[in-house]
Amino acid sequence: MNQESYRDTWAEVNLTAIAENIRAIKQLYQGKDVDIMAVVKANGYGHGAVPVAKQALKFGASYLAVALLDEAIILRKADIQAPILVLGRIRPQDVGVASQYNILVTVFQAEWLEEARNYLSPEDKIQVHIKFDTGMGRVGIRTKEEADSLLEFLANHSKQFSVNGVYTHFATADETDTSYVTEQHERFVRMLEWLKKWNINAPLIHSGNSAAGMRFPEKTFNLFRLGISMYGLTPSPEITEQLPVKLKQAFSLKSRLVQVKKLPKGEAISYGATYRTEKEEWIGTIPIGYADGWLRYHSTNGGEVLVNGKRAPFVGRICMDQCMILLPEQVEVGTVVTLIGEDGFDKITMDEVAQRLETINYEIPCIIGQRVPRVYMD
Ligand code: PMH
After folding, report:
1. Residues of the chain with CATH 2.40.37.10
2. From 130, 175, 219, 274, which residue has the greatest number of CB atoms within 10 Å?
3. 271 in active site
4. Is residue 41 within a helix (H) or strand (E), and if so which, with residue range?
5. For residue 9, what is the enclosing H or E element?
6. Catalytic residue among 41, 54, 131, 254
7. Is residue 264 very low, low, confident or very high in pLDDT (cuts 50, 70, 90)?
8. Residues of each domain in the chain carrying CATH 3.20.20.10
9. Which atom of ligand 1 has the smallest separation from the CA of 39?
10. Which of the listed CATH numbers 3.40.50.920, 2.40.40.20, 2.40.37.10, 2.60.450.10 matches domain 251-348?
11. 235 in contact with ligand 1, CB cutoff 6 A
12. Residue 1 has what pLDDT?
């Protein structure tokens, strides 16, 4: 995906940082029989699923996870052989496609299995991971009755469906208060007991996302679904200080000045003429806009970029493909502008950008559009 590009805006993805993050996190499990499942859904949280998956597999992950069957197929078509789990519900009629590509699917409805069975040929076999909803309230089995009907079906159709894993997902592993994590963990342990009656032995048991896997290794069973922190980002600012590893942000966003102009006092900038120069000012234009996921809110909520290591604020409304900044001094056209990342002694972190947009760091690289080429540094 290091596609050829003719534009002066790009995202830099530091694959070395990803390798180092995985290595540091893996250290927490030294000597323990716990594998890493690298979560590369949503195009690797916007970093690029294929390069990130390949790097993760090279540096210690043995499994991959995505949200959609389509995302799994993209990885297979890129020649990735590792086991891939689809975390979301695939349509029962697509189970043959999942089987053909040897994809692990998530199951939590007996009716789904009954319907999916009709779409498997007698020689097809699909490996499934059973999802328990222990308190996230999203997808998964909640009651023993639901579990029994699903497990009975699986026990009776083991030629077509083999249980490769059982898992759940935490809702609050990134919060300082750990009581709800404990509650979910205890529910999960009780639910795992339900499998015994049906003689179902899942080789893989997993619950931990980045926050849980790093903070509670004792609640992580034998597989760790590592997402956000592989990319070097904290699961939430409130637990950053508590994390046992130092993470390195992999994603930077850069552009170059396409015009630099000196304007007299009182001149308007951008749609709505909402900004007027306060004195004689150097204004720079960069070719990134809301169509790239660089939302208008960046300029209304005090956003800044780095130019030659110095802070420069956005001025006026962000347009579809371009926006303007107030330069600290005259600089040359072509100068690099850092929207996310380091320049000189200063750094604009993903957390700073997320705070500016009143959201979480996860969202920021995910919404940087496909129009912005990803450039890989290794
Ligand atoms: N497992 C599941 C089921 C997930 O949905 C996610 C992330 C992860 C693991 C990885 O979590 P981490 O990135 O915190 O390590 N899912 C989402 C989500 O649905 N919205 O934000 C993150």
Report:
1. 251-348
2. 130
3. yes
4. helix 41-45
5. strand 9-14
6. 41
7. very high
8. 15-238
9. 10
10. 2.40.37.10
11. yes
12. 44
Per-residue burial over 261-290, b if 16 or more Cβ lie within 10 Å, else e, is: eeeeeeeebbeeeebebeeebbbbbbbbbb
Distance CA 44, CA 33 (A): 25
Distance of alpha carbon 377 from its chain centroid, rounded? 19
- Determine whether domain 15-238 maps to CATH 3.20.20.10: yes
Residues 219 and 206: their CA atoms lie apart, in Å, by 9
From 45, 104, 169, the mutation candidate for ligand 1 (largest count of ligand atoms within 8 A of CB) is: 169
Q: Look up residue 174 and give its two tokens.
A: 């990134």
* DSSP-H helix ranges across 167-284: 179-193, 210-215
Q: What is the pLDDT of residues 80-97, one digit of tens each?
A: 999 999 999 999 999 999
Q: Is 101 one of the catalytic residues?
A: no
DSSP string, 295-344: -THHHHTT-EEEETTEEEEEES---SS-EEEEESS---TT-EEEEEEEET
- Residue among 128, 131, 69 at smallest CA distance from 101: 69
Is-contact 291 320, C-beta < 8 A? yes
Residue among 32, 77, 197, 271 flagged as catalytic? 271
Q: Which of 119-123, 211-215, 326-330, 332-336 is least confident?
A: 119-123
Mean pLDDT confidence for 55-84? 98
Residues in the chain: 378
The model scores a pTM over 0.85: yes
